[in-house]
Amino acid sequence: MNKSGFFIIIFMVFFGCDPFGDHYSDIDEVVYYETKTGITDVFIFTPASVMTWNIKFGGGRIDFWFDCYGDRVHMTTGEVTENLQAITDFINEQMPTVILLQEVDVNSKRTAYIDQVQWLLDNTYLNYGVYASQWQNQFVPSDGLGPVDSGNAILSVYPITGAERITLPLRSDQDGITQHFYLKRNILKAKTILNGFEYWILNLHTSAYSNDGTKKKQIDRFVDELHAISFDGELFVAGGDLNEIPPGSSQLSNFPDSICEDEDFQADDYSDETDWLDELYENYQPAVVLTDYHNNELVFFTHTTDSNGFWARKLDYLFTNQDGGFWQSETHQNTMLLSDHAPTTALIQPYFYDSMGAYFCGEPGDTIDVSCMTDDCPEGFICDTEGCYPSQCECTDDGIICTEDCGGSICVPDN
Fold first, then answer.
1. Whole-angstrom distance, CA of residue 154 vs CA of residue 148
2. What's the CA dihedral at 314, 317, 323, 328 to 10 degrees?
3. N or C: which end of the chain has fewer CB within 10 A?
4. CA 303, chain centre distance (Å)
């Protein structure tokens, strides 16, 4: 009897009719979270910002087996909490309104079974979260990994509604047993509030190692979802770790951090993928426009597997369909010790209200009288006169500067 047959028999003895030890037929659906340390109020006139960050399951810069720089598989509780604390310190410093997180563990042996979504909410000012697993097995035999539950999350200051997990195509270049234990990619989609308006937030983490075109299919499904939202006249901010470099990148292969010899973990040749993000850039507003990227690619790189090197390529993105796009963005390359990906943040172009609806605060020097007491709010909004809102605000290159009085009123969603 060969080894694989022997192990399958052992699985069947211990797990009965479920030979792989899974208690589900499909990955669990979206899980909603709320902070356990008290809801935090955030001043509404702070221009909303969105961050995307692959946090490498709180692994910091420990060299794991899959990066080919080390052989670590599991972390201690102390290592996980120390790394998570460094991540939360950075989040609390930047104060994004919404975060798109990839590679978040909630119940994995490798991260000491810490629910990282709950931990991040309880140790930041963020109040609400949703999570969708993309790797959920009670037992993964590879390298003694054991139980794993890891996926995408969206965290927000404001309540999150309408969340769903959109299943993406699986790799077709794997046998059935390997595919069972492997990642089941998804788009995590949910609604929250940015600058007083409802936005769809879509979080994607595509396949890194497929050689059968699976990543292209996943990106195309993502684009289709964005087109559908735009067709319905709704707003979105979308992004994540797309495992793809921008169109027109000067280097397509042989990156300095890529040392893996095992074909299963080689993902550094983009020569046949140069147009895979074209439709995103042609239809929507990116946080980093291509002209800026082409002028100085290095300052926008977000990923490297070599903790002793420098960021080697850009894989992480934010897009919106809002007219005017993002106000400004930043690639935080000072986070080398926190993850193998650098976070990217972008400010959402803020809206203000007049009697006819909403308009942009788009030009530095614009002054807005903040009052809805004499004019009706747009349909679906009500005039809030009880909160402490400034009576006047001015648009500047650095955001919105408002008076410190409480003489204003604003339209807010009626929900």
1. 19
2. -60
3. N
4. 14
Largest CA distance in the chain: 83
- Do 116 and 33 contact (CB within 8 A), yes or no? no
* Rounded Cα gap, residues 33 and 37, in angstroms: 12
Strand, helix or coil at 97? coil
- For residues 146 and 148, what is the distance between their CA atoms, to the nearest angstrom? 6
Question: Whole-angstrom Cα distance, residue 149 to residue 27?
Answer: 10
Could you tell me the pTM of the whole model? 0.78
Residues 6+ positions from 4 with CB-CB distance below 8 Å = 177
Residue type, 414: D
Q: Which pLDDT score is estimated for 9? A: 34
| All residues at 6 or more sequence positions from 269 whose CB lies less than 8 Å from its CB, including other chains | 252, 253, 254
The pLDDT value given to residue 357: 34
Q: Which residues pair with 332 in a beta bridge?
A: none
- Please state whether beta strands 344-348 and 49-54 pair in parallel, antiparallel, or not at all (unpaired): antiparallel
Block residue for tokens 């106000």: 327
Give the residue carrying structure tokens 């109040």: 127
pLDDT at residue 121, rounded to an integer:
98
- Write phi, then psi, for 62 (nearest 5 degrees): -65, 135
* Residue 332 burial class via C-beta count within 10 angstroms: exposed 0-12, middle 13-18, buried 19 and up: middle
Question: Residue 256 phi/psi, 5° resolution?
Answer: -65, -20
Rounded Cα distance between 255 and 259, Å, is 9
